[in-house]
Hints:
The protein is of the alpha+beta class. The protein has six helices and 15 strands. The protein has helices at residues 49-54, 114-126, 213-219, 247-271, 329-359, 362-382; strands at residues 16-18, 23-25, 32-33, 45-46, 63-66, 73-76, 94-95, 106-107, 145-175, 181-206, 228-229, 239-241, 276-305, 308-315, 321-323. The strands form two sheets. Strands 4, 5, 6, 7, 8, 9, 10, 11, 12, 13, 14 and 15 form a twelve-stranded mixed β-sheet that branches. Strands 1-2-3 form a three-stranded antiparallel β-sheet, with no helix packed on it. Mean pLDDT is 79; it is low at 56-61, 78-82, 91-100 and 357-385.
Amino acid sequence: MSDKIYYCEGCGGVMEFDVETQSLKCPHCDTVILIENDKSRIVEHSLTRHAMQSIRATEKTTHTMECRGCGAKIEVEATSTAAECPYCGSNYVLAGKQEDAVIPDGVLPFQVDKKRVGDLFRRWMKGRWLAPGELKNLYQKDRLQGIYVPYWTFDAKVDARYTAMGGRHRTVSRKGPDGKTVHEVVTDWYPTSGSIQHFFDDVLVPASNKLDSKLMRRVGIFGTKQVVSYAPQYLSGYAAECFTVNLDVAHVDAVGAMERELESMARDQVLRRYDEVMDVKVRAQYKDETYKHVLLPIYSTAYSYKGKQYHVLINGQSGRVDGDYPKSPAKLAGILVAIVVLLALLFWFSEGGRMRTEQVPVDEASSTFLEEEQTWDYLADNLPM
């Protein structure tokens, strides 16, 4: 990372990374400077025990800003002394000590510019029909910040063996208590096994724990084929967070993700031969494991509503928006009332109609009416006048 400020040779303005051209661009005179992408510098490092235990940061000259509100560590230019935290919305951060950090192997540049991201946020907010009405006008351009979030990626060749129980359905017939034939489906279970060979490419694990993990999983789906070689110019006009999740911890999470995928693949294999599957157990051997450190683009905002804080994230590559928001008690009450009314109407038309039909069946009503007529005729003929 670099603390260099990129001044325009044409007008002297500060140049920033431009999404449309994927280059440095002066916002004043539109001068463009291309950023070199050297794919050979995107290095896959061998994942050894020594690397996981002794990986050391390389020299950097940017400032690490530490937020007093949530503790997030953000990389900013050396000239910066204050900023707004994109995670918790604090109005200031303090310049911390010069901390060592791993220089990224690659970066996925922003594909969604700052103008479009505002439209995406407003559209998302307007679609939250359970949100209070005043929330629709919440968007403030300066509160939505672009930040490069650190990730570890892991590659591995896997040879795996699995065992499972495969079930086959068959239909059996038997006589019921009433003498009628009853057909039943039963499942016969058989032990089965197999093997899987698979190459995992770029299994992503967040190297930061400052963002909500569930929210990041929903938003943080990236196409890593667009990762380019790291250059500090991509950070001009944006922030970048330092990694806070160690390589060995991230590797455990990556292996867990691979094992879940292998189990799913084993299930699919068994279901090609059987109708059901259970008790899947996978034993995997990993080889040629590699890792790299990359920065991926996220827009983040935090806002408060009636004393409670909410977060919204926007994927800087795909534009996917997700987040949490307050629900209007009045709207929730309206929905509850509507559901109760609907259920009452359904009950009335089903149960009420059925009860009336059961109480006065057509045949019985006709029979009763005839009996009453005959009774009145008898009385009229036999009672004294």
